[in-house]
Amino acid sequence: MNLASRKWLTALVWCGAAGVACSATGGGGSGGTPGGAGAGAGGAAASTGSGGSSAGPGTGGGNGLGGGNGFDAGGSTDGSSLKDGEACTGTNTTAKPTPLGVMVMFDQSSSMVGARWNAIVKSLKDFTTSPEAAGIRIALNYFALTKPCSSNSDCKSSWGKCGSTGFCTFDDYCDAAAYETPEVDFSELPGAAAAIAASLDKHAPLFNTTSPPALEGALRAARTRAAAVPQEKVVVVLMTDGEPDSITCGFGNKDAPLVVSAAQAGLAGSPSIPTYVIGVGNKVGNLNAVAAAGGTGKAYMVDGGGGAATQQQFVAALNAIRGSALPCSYTVPPPPPGETLDYDKVNVVFTPDGGSTETIGMVPGVADCGPKGGWYYDNPAQPSSIMVCPATCDVFHGGASGSVDIQLGCDTVIQIK
Fold it and tell me: Interior CA angle at 41 toward 35 and 42, to 5°?
């Protein structure tokens, strides 16, 4: 779908400076030749009217396509109106997407040892320094987490020993509270890449798979972040190569439903936190069920053999998650200095590279989003974000490059179904 070639709207907005009337002209009447006298009626918009007869620069005369200015989208406070041919330019500002926060819970179980571990670690490092990841606020933690030690005598478990990273190999922490404080707290990429790399370099795959409390802890951390930074969308990414397995905690394959329940609770909570899942290797059990419960469909599966294939698939999975999780919403910009924002004079404008600028029509709410797309306010009574309908989001994120602007000062164009 190409916005540059698609007629999204049946009305265009023509306005003047602040306080001047705003009119929407018809989108395709039977007007005369460019610059000639307009005799055609405009297309359907908020209300209908006949084409004007004034000569002007638009197709069909008057001040717009189809002739005349017969579709009045609003009046001015002082009774004035635009002169024929005058177009509302408003004040444009580059749209600022809602920031994305990603809480990564990283499996450091012993089954990750060797080429698999090296490939996954390198892939995460590469992702954090990639241009595509710039702007993401990332946090990182690991599972299982265990008791720190300086010798084997510090480890309480009869199976445990003090590992090379200074932690007991079998003294797993079994409560979610142990996992809810990230080792690397939320920080923006690419600036956070060095801290992520340094953290990964301190860890090794020596432990068990305490998935249930690890995911619950990650979701707690994400929810805390979302509550503290409400303008940010926060998600969890669970990376693992197997089902729960911990002698210390008594976890086994039978406890896989606990991970599903944690993901479900995260999605149902307030604020809602979705869980994305990356499964490494072929012994990943019910990870699709975890992803489904977390609201993200199914797990991203990655080859577990290590090497180039594992690295490429893992980075591809992270980029797919980034694209899926990236919010299709924008913050409502402040008005120019000394002015008050009129929420009925806000528009979303998209300009594809090499294409014509398109004004995206507004719909009342998410239930009104259809194949034509559009946008709506998060809270019509007190808007803070502009939410983009899925069809329009597909265009914005669909590989066709371009720019999105928020225009203030021109009557909002309404999407016609």
Answer: 85
Residue entry with tokens 């998935």: 211
The predicted pLDDT at position 384 comes to 87
* Cβ neighbours of 202 (radius 10 Å): 10
Which structure tokens are listed for 105? 């819970």
The partner residues of 55 in beta bridges, in order of sequence, read 37
pLDDT of residue 401: 67
Q: What is the CA radius of gyration of the chain?
A: 27
Q: In whole angstroms, give the CA distance from residue 201 to residue 195.
A: 10
Cβ atoms of 165 and 204 within 8 Å: the answer is yes
Which pLDDT score, from 0 to 100, does residue 259 have?
Answer: 97
Of 246, 264, 265, nearest in space to 208 by CA: 246
Measured distance CA(412)–CA(374) in Å, rounded: 12
CA angle 95, 103, 278 (to 5 degrees): 105
Say if residues 162 and 168 touch (Cβ distance below 8 Å). Answer: yes
Instruction: Please report the pLDDT score of residue 72 as a whole number.
Output: 29
pLDDT at 35: 36
Separation of alpha carbons 375 and 366, rounded Å: 8
* Secondary structure, 3-state, 3-37: CCCCCCCCEEEEECCCCCCEEEEECCCCCCCCCCE
Six-digit token string for 276? 């994305």
First-to-last alpha carbon distance for the chain, in angstroms, is 17
Beta bridge partners of 160: none
Q: Which residues, given as ranges, of the chain have pLDDT below 70?
A: 1-87, 89, 398-401
User: Could you give the CA distance from residue 348 to residue 362 in angstroms, rounded to a whole number?
Assistant: 8
3-state secondary structure of 311: helix
Answer whether 332's CB lies under 8 Å from 346's CB: yes
CA distances from 169 to 32, 38, 203 (A): 82, 82, 12
pLDDT score at 159: 78
Instruction: Give the predicted TM-score (pTM) of the model.
Output: 0.70
Helix (H, G, I), strand (E, B) or coil at 108: coil
Could you tell me the CA-to-CA distances from 81 to 26, 60, 89 in Å, in that order?
Answer: 17, 20, 15
pLDDT tens per residue across span 265-304: 999 999 999 999 999 998 777 899 999 999 999 999 999 9
